[in-house]
Design brief:
The strands form two sheets. The protein has a four-stranded antiparallel beta sheet with strand order 1-2-3-4, covered by helices on one side. α4 packs antiparallel against α5 (223-255). 44% of the residues lie in helices and 11% in strands. The protein is of the alpha+beta class and 256 residues long.
């Protein structure tokens, strides 16, 4: 049982998303289920989530906007962030799932789903997610903390490659074509990034198609990390080749 006021607010949310979503976030709405949205955030360059796809389901409770929306992360069994739990739970002040100051909490008159998505992108899927863990925040900027953060980023990057494999093998409903197009356009960048790390580039120095701002005095990636990359590259390559064959087969039958 929902009210006209609730439906109008959801339609307002749709309009806000339509006008203001950045190029790295995509959302699907469902006219027959106004209480649901499905969103995907593309991992940003320079982060351990670069070029990955991260899917979230959003539900509007009947009390919305008096209470925040509920958000579920499609984790695929992988712990890729201290604030994204293995059961899909998203830990964020704006959602009321983590403590925060008044300005960081949900405010019915001002807060919206766009802010939630932008917060997940900026605060969770960031360059140094290691420090999202409250007990580690005080070590940010210290030599010990930065070393731990780098090692954590290497682990997360490998898990992010696994999420790519998971997304290609089991694309979420209504996003199959999006997943296919995304990885066809990003496959080269992903492989270039992996090969650069294997060749001695330090983590996080890469942006689309090459290396920029490379500090040659910085520490290269760890041997364990670089040694693990070939297997992950083969894993993605096999899935990508399978997809390419299916696409080419489909084109063949359409032409003849």
């Amino acid at each position: 049982q929902t009210s006209k006021k609730w439906a109008k607010r959801i339609q307002d949310e749709w309009r806000i998303l339509e006008k203001n979503l950045p190029d790295s976030i995509y959302v699907r709405a469902y006219e027959s289920r106004m209480d649901l949205l499905r969103a995907v955030i593309v991992g940003a360059d320079g982060t351990p989530y670069s070029d990955g796809l991260f899917f979230f389901d959003i539900s509007f409770p009947v009390e919305y906007p008096s209470v925040p929306p509920e958000v579920h992360y499609h984790v695929g069994g992988l712990d890729i962030n201290p604030n994204l739990y293995s059961n899909g739970y998203v830990c964020l002040s704006l959602l009321g799932t983590w403590s925060g100051s008044h300005n960081e909490n949900w405010q019915p008159s001002f807060s919206n789903v766009l802010q939630v998505l932008l917060s997940i992108q900026a605060l969770l899927l960031n360059e140094k997610p290691y420090f999202n863990e409250p007990s580690y925040e005080d070590f940010k900027g210290t030599p010990e903390g930065e070393i731990e953060s780098l090692e954590y980023n290497e682990e997360i990057f490998l898990l992010s490659l696994k999420t790519m494999d998971y997304s290609m093998r089991r694309p979420p409903k209504h996003f199959k074509d999006f997943v296919k197009d995304h990885f066809h356009s990003r496959a080269k960048d992903i492989m270039v990034t992996c090969k650069a790390y294997m060749s001695g580039a330090q983590f996080g120095c890469l942006v689309k198609g090459g290396i920029q701002d490379l500090n040659r005095g910085a520490k290269s990636c760890s041997p364990n990390f670089t040694g693990s990359l070939p297997a992950h590259m083969d894993m993605l390559g096999n899935v990508y080749q399978t997809w390419s064959k299916r696409i080419m087969k489909g084109i063949y039958f359409k032409l003849f």
